[in-house]
Amino acid sequence: MTKRIGIPRGLLFYNFFLLWSSFFESLGMEVISTAETNKGILDKGASKVVDEACLPVKVFYGHVAELAERELDYIFVPRMVSIEKGAYICPKIIGIPDMVKANITAKPAYLAPNLNMREKESHDQFLKEIAANMGKPLIQVQKAWRSAMKVQQKYELDLLQGIYPEKVFLKRETLEHNGDLNILLLGHEYNLYDDYINMGIRKKLKQMGCNLMTVNQVPKYVQQLESRVLSRRMFWTYGKSLLGTARYFRELPGSKGVILLTSFGCGIDSIVGNMIIRYLGKMKIPYLNITLDEHTGEAGINTRIEAFIDLLRWRRELDEDNISTYGKYLGSPQRYAGIYGS
To answer: Out of 21, 250, 287, 313, which residue is the most buried by the measure of CB atoms under 10 Å away?
Structure first.
């Protein structure tokens, strides 16, 4: 009988789902993923996790809870410590297997291999744990992983070209570049691509005539180079990705702005987001910072986005010469003395 493994649609799902699903399918397994995030999934997750957890973790809990009730053999919740030499992933993602196991009792077994490439760039230990837990020959597991890595490379190339595969995003999308504004939508993939978390922000921006760019449209080596502006190396992989992308964006021509999506309660976002905002200020690039949590209202998001896009369009008009909104010269005696003109 074919064994079935469930993969939650949360956290690093949009980064690695094709890698993981191709890998397990090559081992002869049926891969099951959860549906798109909705209120029921979020509520279910929020009820099982501590209040201090960020919104994406609460969503992940909800997806795991959905899989916990199904007839599966495994739920895949890997411990992602590091995906590159000399860097770490988010601490909450590192601890997510222990957090989930302690709070969600599941019918299937949890498959939680440890991936740590900080000291040595190798998947060997990760694959050995999978082989041992699943009772598969190591050579078969290694072969399946090599095949899956080719699929992952194709996926990342598609994202660079603005192509979003249907298997991950449920419907095939492509980026269109026929708008009058260039917007960098900056944030972790679980915030960018989960339309329930971000309230469909990508669709909203496209409808407003914006050309969108995300971290996935900038090559990783470019992100690495641009992030080296810091006096010391940043040890968060996705922090480097966000900072490097923001700095690269400054070189693009045309009218532009940055919308930064951050999660309330995320320690890394609070530090890296502040760095990015300071750099955007120095580069004179307008930005809008939106903090997401389960209480964020769609009406408030819409108002802020519409106001930001309107301001960008007004800003580029050459004939605008209005009084500053903060009233720099309003009521000033110098104005009436003719210092600033009539």
So the answer is: 21
* CA angle, 59 then 64 then 68, to 5°: 150
Q: Are strands 114-116 and 79-82 parallel, antiparallel or unpaired?
A: parallel
Give me the torsion for CA of 144, 147, 150, 151, rounded to 10°: -70
pLDDT tens by residue, 164-213: 999 999 888 777 777 788 999 999 999 999 999 999 999 999 999 999 99
The total of other beta-carbon atoms located within 10 Å of residue 78's CB is: 21
HSE at residue 120, side-chain half, CA atoms within 13 A, is: 5
pLDDT tens per residue, range 102-151: 999 998 999 999 999 887 777 899 999 999 999 999 999 999 999 999 99
**209, 181 in Cβ contact below 8 A?**
yes
Do 286 and 313 contact (CB within 8 A), yes or no? no
Tokens coding 296: 């964020």
Q: What is the mean pLDDT of residues 289-301?
A: 85
Q: What pLDDT score does 316 carry?
A: 67
Tell me phi and psi for residue 28, to 5 degrees. 80, 20
- The burial of 96, by beta-carbon neighbours within 10 Å (0-12 exposed, 13-18 middle, 19 or more buried), is given as buried
Give dist(CA 268, CA 274) in Å, integer.
Answer: 10
Second CATH level (architecture) for the domain 4-160? 3-Layer(aba) Sandwich (3.40)
* pTM for the full predicted model: 0.87
For residue 338, give the amino acid letter. G
Q: Where in the chain are the domains?
A: 4-160, 175-316
> Quick one: fold of 175-316?
Rossmann fold (3.40.50)
Cα distance between residue 115 and residue 127, in whole Å: 9
- In total, the chain counts a number of residues equal to 342
